[in-house]
Amino acid sequence: MTQLLELTGVTKRFDAFTAVDDLSFSVREGEVFGFLGGNGAGKTTTLRMVLDIIRPTGGTISVMGRAPGRENSRDIGFLPEERGLYRQMTAIDTITYFGRLKGMTAAAARDHGRELLTRFELGDHEKTAVEKLSKGMAQKVQLATALVNRPRLLILDEPFSGLDPVNQGLLENEILHAAQRGATVIFSTHVMQHAERLCDRLLLLAKGRKRFEGTQDEARATLPAQLDIVARTSPATLPGVANAAPLGTTIDGWQEYRVSLDPGVDPGDLLLRCTEGGVPLRRFEPRRATLHDVFLHLVGTAPDAATPDLDPNRRAAA
Amino acid sequence: MMRHILLVAAREFRQIAMTRSFWLTLLILPAALAIGPLTQRFMSKDEPDRVMLIDHSGGGTARAIEAQFERERQRGILTDLSRYVQRYHLDDAAPTALWSQHDRWYSDADVARFVADGGVDTALTRLKPATPDGTPAFTPDKPRYVFLAPSPAITAATDGAVDSALRPLLHPTGKDAEPLDYAVLVPADFGQSPVVRLWSNGDATQRFVATLQPVLTQELRGRYLESNGLSADAARTASAIAPALAISTPPPGGGARERVLIRSILPLVACYMLMMSLMLSGSWMLQGTVEERSNKLLETVIACVSPEELMYGKLVGTVGIGLSMIAVWMLCGIGAAYATQGTIADMIRPALEPLNSVGTIATMIYFFVAGYVAIAMVFLAIGAMSDSMRDAQGYLTPILMAIIIPITILIQGILSGGGGIGIEVLTWIPIYTPFAVLARLGSGIPAWEVIAAGVLLAAFIAIELVLLGRLFRASLLAGGQRPDLKTIVARMRA
Predict the structure, then answer these.
(1) Residue B388 φ/ψ, nearest 5 degrees
(2) What is the DSSP letter of B34?
(3) What distance in Å separates residue A78's CA from the closest CA in chain B?
(4) Are residues B138 and B42 in contact, defined by beta-carbon separation less than 8 angstroms?
(5) From CA A40, how far away is CA A305, in angstroms rounded?
(6) d(Cα A212, Cα A234) in Å, to the nearest integer?
(7) Domains of chain A, first to last
(8) At what angle do helices A91-101 and B2-17 cross, to 10 degrees?
(9) Does A87 contact B299 at a Cβ distance shorter than 8 Å?
(10) How far, in Å, are B37, B42, B120, B336 from residue B46 at the CA level?
(11) For residue B165, how many C-alpha atoms fall within 13 Å in the half-sphere facing its CB?
(12) What is the DSSP letter of A305?
C-alpha cells in the first residue's frame, strides 16, 4: 500500500504556544484513518497544515506525493469542524461552485451534485436556497460539497459534531461508501465510538504530540489484558495477575472479580494457572478494551475533556 | 490561479446582483431620468392661464398689454425655432433668416419682423426642403395665456365695484366652471394715479408680472408726457424709446465659464459615480465577507482557494459590480442625451465630447479602476476582521468620513470654479488621487501631473495590496475579540 499522506517531524507554533510538536505519521491509500484526541490536541491544526490553510513551523508534509497546496484540492474533499454555507445560494449551485473550485467543469459538478442530493434525499430541494433548508438538510449539502469531486482523500474534521443521529448514520455510510470506492478517509474525532466502528488505523494525539499510531488491535494491545471471572478464591496471588478487584457481593461463596493482567500476559495463561492452582471457576470472560480505555490509559484524561486554553481555532491565525 | 479568482469573482458578482438593494440602486438613475420629464409633463399646466383685462382708462392700455404678451410668445417661438435649426443643422435653408442667427437675443423689432414675414408657419415652409427625413417636427409652445373679454357688467362696474364683480369669476362655485387666473384693472384715473390692480387666483408668476410691468410703465410715461404738453404721438414715441441692445450670446453651453463647467461634467460625474458605486458595492462586498466569517464557511473556501485568490476574486467581483452600475448609468445618461431634445440634451452632448479623446478615456478608466481597487481593499480588510456588520461599522464609519468629506469638498470646489491649492494637495494623497484627477480633468490638469499621480497611485496600491493582503489572510480564520491597532499592525507585518 502506498502512503497517501506523510508527515515527518511537523511542528506548528503560534508565538510561544506549540500546537503540534514534532508529529510524524502516515496514512496509507484506501484506509479509514482516525485522528483521535481531545479538544486542543492539535487535530484541526494538523489537518489545516495538510490542506495548506496554515503553514507548519517545521517538518515536512507530503500529500499524495506532493507538498500541501491548492492544486491538491481537486483530489481532496474537506469537511471542516466549523461549517457554513452561502445562505442565498441554492443547494445545487453551492455544490457546483465548490466542485468548480476543485477543478471540475460546471456540468460535471452539477451532475454529480444532483446525484449526491438524490442519494441524500434532497433531490426535491436542489433549487432551494440554503437559508430555507433545515439544519439537517444544510448539513447534507455541506457533506455533498466535500464529496462532489469524488475525492481520493477525504478529510473530515470532527464530522459528527453537531449532526443529528440520522445524519450521523448517513455520514458513517458515506465514509464507508468512500472507502469502498478506494478513497482514503481521515477523520478527526473525540468520540471514540465512531472511530471504533470505522477506523482501520488511528492516531492518538494529546497536547500536540503523538501518543499512538496503529490499528485498533494494536491500540488495545497497549493496555494490559482484562477479564471478568467468577471464582471461589481471589486470583490476586496468581503469577501474572496485576490486580483483581472484587465486583458486587459474594453469592453462595462465588465472587466476581475484574482482573488486570501484567503486560504481555495472555488470558489463556491465567486460565492454565487457575486450573493448575486449583482455583475453581464458574465464569472466565476476557474483556475487550474500548478505545476510550486506550485513550485514558495513554493520555490520562477522557478525550472529551475540554482544554479551552488550547483551542487551535482561536490561535490558528492569531 | 486565474480560474479561482474568476470563479470567486463570478460568485461575488452573482451574489450582489441577486440582492434587491443592488437592483434598486441600479435602477434609481434610469427611473429618475424617465420619471423626471414625465413628472414635469404632469406637473406643468396644460391649459393656458385665463386673463381678463379691464381697462377703464380708454382701452389702449389693455390692447398694449395683450400685444406685449403676444410679442413675448413670438419671441419664445423664434428662440426655440433658432435652437431647432441649430440642433438639426438646417441653417442652409435660409442663412440670413432671423432663425438662422443663433448667437443673439431677439429684439422687439426682430420679433415684429419675424411676425411680419409670416411667423412660424412661413419659417417652417422655408425650412422644409432642407429638413432631412426623420427629423423631428418643430412644435411651437402653446400660448401661455388666453385673454377673455370682460362682460358688459364688469366693464360697466365702477373701479370700486370691480372687486365684487370679479369674485365669482376668480372663485366660481359651479363644478365645471373654469376660474380666471388673472384679472388686471386699469382704473379710469390711470395716468394721474400709477395704481393698477392685479387679481390672481394663486401666486402671480414672475413671468406674468415681468411682462405686464414694462407695458404699464410705458403707458404711464406716455400719459405723463402728454399731460405735460407733448402731443399724443410724441408722448407715445418718447415713452417707447428703448436702447437697441445688440446682444450677442454664445450658443447654449458655449460661454467660457460654461465650457469649463460642461467639460467638467463628465469627469465630475465619473468622480461622483466612483464615490457612489464604491460606497455601495464596497458595503455589499463587506457584507459578503462578514457573512462568510459569521457563517463559518471560510475554512471550506480557503481549503480550495488561497486567501490571495479569494481576496483578488472579491476585488474583481466588486469592481465588476461597480463598473456594471456605472456602465448602466452612463448608457442611460447618453440615451437621455441623444433620445431627448431640449436644454438638458444640449448641455449633455457637449459634456460627452471628452469621450472623443482616447487619452481622456484611458485616464478616466485607469483612475476609476485604480480608485476602486484602492478603496475596495480597505472594505475587504475590514470585512475580514469583523464578525458582524456592527463590528464592521466600528472601523468603517471613521474611514468613510475621512474619504467622503474631502471628496465632497473637492467636487464642490471644482463646481464653483476654484482650482485652489487644496485640490492640488488632494491630488497627491493616494486615497484621494483618483477623485482629484477625475474631477480636475475637465478644468485642466497638466499631463505630467496626471502621469506622476498615476504612478504614485500604482505604487500605493501595490503596497496596500501587500499590507492589507497580509491583514486579510491573517484575519480570515482569527476569532476572538476585535483586533486592536497593535494586532492589526502585527498582522500587516507578519
Answers:
(1) -150, 165
(2) H
(3) 7
(4) no
(5) 10
(6) 34
(7) 3-220 (3.40.50.300), 226-288 (3.30.70)
(8) 160
(9) no
(10) 14, 8, 21, 23
(11) 18
(12) -
Vertex B91: Cα angle to B90 and B96 (nearest 5):
150
3-state secondary structure of A229: strand
Taking the complete model, does pTM exceed 0.80, yes or no? no
Q: Dump pLDDT digits (tens) for B408-459.
A: 787 777 766 666 777 788 888 888 888 888 877 766 778 888 899 999 999 9
Query: What residues form DSSP beta bridges with A215?
Result: A201
Alpha-carbon distance of B355 to B361, in angstroms, equals 6
Q: How far is CA B442 from CA B71, B117, B220, B432, B494, in A?
A: 40, 44, 51, 17, 43
CB atoms within 10 A of CB B490: 15
* Residue B477: closest C-alpha in chain A: A317
Q: Strand A58-63 to strand A76-79: parallel, antiparallel, or no bridges (unpaired)?
A: unpaired
How far does B403 lie from chain A, in Å, by closest CA?
30
- Verify whether the Cβ–Cβ distance A86 to B11 is below 8 Å: yes
Percent of chain B with pLDDT strictly greater than 70: 86
When CB atoms are compared, the residue of A52, A78, A88 closest to B300 is A78
Q: Which three cell numbers stand for residue A74?
A: 481537486
- Asked if A76 lies within 8 A of B303 by C-beta distance, the reply is yes
Torsion angle (degrees, nearest 10) of CA B8, B11, B12, B15: -160
Q: Which residues contact A5 (CB under 8 A, 6 or more apart)?
A: A26, A27, A50, A61, A62, A63, A64, A153, A184, A186
Q: What is the Cα–Cα distance from A221 to B390, expressed in whole angstroms? A: 55
Q: At A103, list the grid cell.
A: 477543478
Residues ≥6 apart with Cβ < 8 Å to A309: A40
Q: Pull the grid cell for residue B47.
A: 391649459
- What is the spatial distance between Cα B461 and Cα B455, in angstroms, rounded to a whole number? 10
pLDDT along chain A (318 residues), means of 10: 87 88 91 88 90 90 90 89 85 94 93 92 89 87 91 90 83 88 89 85 89 86 85 87 87 89 85 85 86 79 52 40
Residue A238 to residue B284: CA distance in whole angstroms? 76
Instruction: Name the strand (E) or helix (H) holding A63.
Output: strand A58-63
User: Which candidate in A72, A76, A82 is best for mutational testing of the B interface (most B CBs within 10 A)?
Assistant: A82
d(CA A287, CA A291): 13
pLDDT of B243 reads 74
Rounded to a whole number, what is the distance in Å from the CA of B3 to chain A's nearest CA? 8
B300/A84 Cβ within 8 A: yes
Distance of alpha carbon A265 from alpha carbon A261, whole angstroms? 6
For residue A75, what is the nearest residue in chain B, using CA coordinates?
A: B304
Dump pLDDT digits (tens) for B125-177.
998 888 888 787 888 888 889 999 888 888 888 877 888 888 888 888 877 77
